[in-house]
């Protein structure tokens, strides 16, 4: 009886030991897989933070900058290859980017061409938004055409009809274009364009957005493409949008 009990004890102990060994091997495999996933994710983020379209295909490239990027060192931005910059300027009927004036002035000092962006609000009248833009963005002969950023905003639940949006947007464009002396660029996001088909209803140059792959959601080919919204540059905090112009002659 004692011998049998001892044998059973040894068997149980061996089984427990084997189970622990298998569990340890499994844990090592899971841990190794987790480390591998982290490494791959890190490599993907590293690549995304540095990728820009081929300069040979798109020789004119630039950045999108806002107050979110902190105090920007424009010499570093130019050294990174930015020929131009679109800077967030105004938002709706009363918002203004607190770094707009500084960013625009400092970019010009180092020879980077500058254009202003207005973030259009579905909750505000076009005339009030135009007044905000005109009040804060001076008319300059050397400025790039103004951009109207069209996207949904969690602060604004309104969803006007397409006819009303196009009418209000036409009013806004007419007023800011009379001020700047230049035809505007419209920049709808994919979801906004899908719902309102702005590029089919407003005859303006378009700036479309899609990370890493050319966008194809507009009614006609894009003139400017925001190709990567995850770029990190020396001289700017956080991430910047990286943009390219379509070369002349391409469709």
TrEMBL record:
<comment type="similarity">
    <text>Belongs to the glycosyl hydrolase 25 family.</text>
</comment>
<dbReference type="InterPro" id="IPR002053">
    <property type="entry name" value="Glyco_hydro_25"/>
</dbReference>
<dbReference type="GO" id="GO:0016052">
    <property type="term" value="P:carbohydrate catabolic process"/>
</dbReference>
<keyword id="KW-0472">Membrane</keyword>
<dbReference type="GO" id="GO:0003796">
    <property type="term" value="F:lysozyme activity"/>
</dbReference>
<keyword id="KW-1133">Transmembrane helix</keyword>
<dbReference type="InterPro" id="IPR017853">
    <property type="entry name" value="GH"/>
</dbReference>
<dbReference type="Pfam" id="PF01183">
    <property type="entry name" value="Glyco_hydro_25"/>
</dbReference>
<feature type="transmembrane region" description="Helical">
    <location>
        <begin position="30"/>
        <end position="49"/>
    </location>
</feature>
<keyword id="KW-0812">Transmembrane</keyword>
<dbReference type="GO" id="GO:0009253">
    <property type="term" value="P:peptidoglycan catabolic process"/>
</dbReference>
<dbReference type="GO" id="GO:0016998">
    <property type="term" value="P:cell wall macromolecule catabolic process"/>
</dbReference>
<protein>
    <submittedName>
        <fullName>Lysozyme</fullName>
    </submittedName>
</protein>
